[in-house]
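1st attempt posting a full record on here, be nice pls
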Amino acid sequence: MKLKSIKVPDDAYLEKIGFIWHTDDDATPYIANEIVEVDSREADAYYEAANELYDMFVEAGEYVIENDLLHDIGIPFNLIDAVKMSWDNDVHWHLYGRFDFAGGLDGKPIKLLEFNADTPTALFETSIVQWATLKLNGMEESHQFNNLHEALVDNFKRLITMEEDVSSFEERYDGWKILFSSVKGNIEEENTVRLLQSIATQAGYETEFAYADEVEFDAEEGVFFKEINYEYWFKLLPWEDIAIEEADLAMLMTQIMENQKAIFLNPAYTLMFQSKAFMAILWELYPNHPLLLETSFEPLEGVAQVEKKIFGREGANTIIVDENEEIVAQTEGEYGEFPSIFQEYAQLPTNDKGESYQAGVFYAFEGCGLGFRKGGLILDNASKFVGHVVTVEQV
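the predicted structure (as tokens):
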């Protein structure tokens, strides 16, 4: 793995562009002062892996639905109908997600760790901060695997066109409005949502922002804010949190879907993809696929492995054990009540300090943006964001 030291934009500049969460709780910068050098073949491989895996997720999703396996992968009972309805109707378009990968550098094979299909983070970092960093350091901004912003513009248009070609958007758009929401008090989530709102506005929609507790729902009429009815509601609220913590809202959203009064982004079926248990289904359908790690609902035998909670986040409640079942690393967290899955351990690329680097590839109709996270053996909420550059001699 090749790393290049760089200068990071100062805090004042980052705040000017809306990136407020530039400093971690320990007062250290969140954006690393280095970038990963990736050659064009490695960038192409990340792109192709994301595209191939998404096709596999779709095929496996159909298998889960047809065989009534939603309970098996942990989908809460009060969202089963919403997942099925959204899956069966193409108007429930998947806007974006992020694949997390091990490997891909130094000739190491790319391996899927998980798919953050519902509420992925690092959108702002990947789409904007990376560009700003290259520009500050006198590098050619286009030397990245990163057209995330443009891909999202087009994918917003596909909410209407329902096809790869988005040229018919303007003639088919009929004033449909998108309401964007996050939870009040979380500036990272709010500014990420406001970025998505600006992208949707650029795509051609009428948009508005409201905090989640300001939005009103009517089973018969749909989604409202300040007495205005919205055809789409984008919420940076995990579907599983809605199911568990907001049961009344889960019921209302399901009824609104049944009455075809609003479309929710990301769709309910992304919870199926988000469940880490889904990777056990993938392994069952595609055993020994080169992009997959063996994953099971039961502990694996004789191999180093990672125990993860199916709806865990940011590395919480994760245990790594070696082939002798000795614990190598472990984290605590708030997701202990969820079931576990067991995934073959894949070593991440490391630097000379032993810090690990995990690739994240955004997907919006196709692979469209690469970034890295740096941290310990288990990447948690203290990990750093690391940008990348596609080396000039390989472009």
